[in-house]
Amino acid sequence: MLNYREIIRLKSLGYSNLRVGNSCGSSRNTIAEVWKLAQDKELTWPIPNNLTNKDLSAILYPGRLTSQGRKLPDYEYIYKELAKPGVTLSLLWSEYCEKCRHEGMIPYQHSQFSDKYHAYAASKKATLRITRKPGEIMEVDWVGNTLSVIDETTGEEIKAYVFVACLPCSLYSYAEAFPDMKSNHWIEAHVHAYSFFGGVTRILVPDNLKTGVIKNTSTELILNHSYHEMAEHYGTAIIPARPFTPRDKANAERTVGVIETWILAAIRNRKCFSFTEVNAVILEKLTEFNKKPFQKKKGSRFTAFEEEEKDFLMPLPASPYETAIWSKATIQPDYLIPVGNCKYSVPYEFIGKKIEVRTTEKTIEMFFHGQRIASHIRRAYSQEPIYVPEHMPANHRQYLAYNSENFLKWGENIGDNALLVIKNFLYMHKIERQGYKSCVSLMRLADRYSTNRLEQACGTALTYTPSPSLKNIATILKNGLDKVKVKPPSLQSDTSHGITRGAAYFRGGKEKC
User: Fold this and answer.
1) Is 489 among the domain residues?
2) Over the stretch 8-26, which tens digit does the pLDDT of each residue have?
3) Are 432 and 352 within one domain?
4) Which of 238, 308, 374, 442 could pair covalently with 346 via S-S, beta carbons 3.0-4.6 A apart?
5) Which residues form the domain of 373?
6) Can you give the pTM of this predicted structure?
């Protein structure tokens, strides 16, 4: 199925039908048709995430039928005609379509026509030369050879992989070393390259490495989520080179070879002890490389860039793209997602659901079917899980609200007797948390019997013992003893020294006390 969302996004950015077709694996006629239908239906970017490509297809093409039976082009004729001045593949495709209409045949779409011709031309080792426009394309790749960075602690050598970006029009280039070729460094390299050039090209041509391109066929293009997100941030279109077709990014391939000689080989005997140091050396050699005069024409890569290409670059966005790592996770019963050394909460309603997690250096974001359901500020370390109260069920929120301060405040609102009982529950243990359960149970008694009766029951219990138990108070409330006024027993004898036995008791006699 066509990626209608991507077609509408790229057309909204002002790209041509052919460029959008190359990016989405469709013909330019199809792109023009989709864009016209989208305008007729008043579909504009951004399109809501819940409107899928299947929905867009139903909106744009209700009851659409497919046709079969196509005329095969004469590629030998096309091969010979392309050798003539001014003749292009697009012109020959237009003539081919006109011929098909006269013969009542169905022509191939532009993308199919081009792919079949390129396959035929490759068998004859023919090359289709393309003139590059200023500010249009940036080609990127990794250098095959590596550098070495010495670990200051162990003295071991660490491999350094070199990223290269080239602007085909001026051949102005950028290079930087990284400890690996993983997705985060791949995207970080692009961000640094755009900053180095001071602008953004309209098209980005990478290789088909898995860190950037998941799938690239004649009919389908699937990009890495973070890579596509970066392209949207900078407003550029990613059009990967065809698999096993280095000519699609010939300038980057040549630049890689030249950089291997003029930069990597030139610093082969330099000992660097950090990536900051090795990149400083690379930048020094890169400046020399870009200012090195051309052999067959005037100027250098730097002067060509300054005079011919710099002004045609699109402006950089207000802030650089923050590298993000996307991953998938299934929500567990504790509704927590582990990221690094911390655990972050998501709404408990998504327990058992599969979600996507977007991780940057500063934030953690969770998405379900394209909709953001939670976000957190990223922390380096936290021993306790990081919960957002709104993510929790009501009973869990109530449990987290249990603490000594809240219990004491509640006791003050009930009365002096209840406060004394609360303090007894909290302070009778070595750890206050051990008394939380008794405090919670006391609060439930207040819900069951009312706060006034609980206050009376606590007072009654305190007349018997300075440390009443929860069971004592519950028994008083159950039997209604809190409603009976209890008077302390009075003794007729002098009780200042307690009850004493008289002399008659010890003589075996009887004596009233």
Assistant:
1) no
2) 888 888 888 888 888 888 8
3) no
4) 374
5) 325-392
6) 0.51
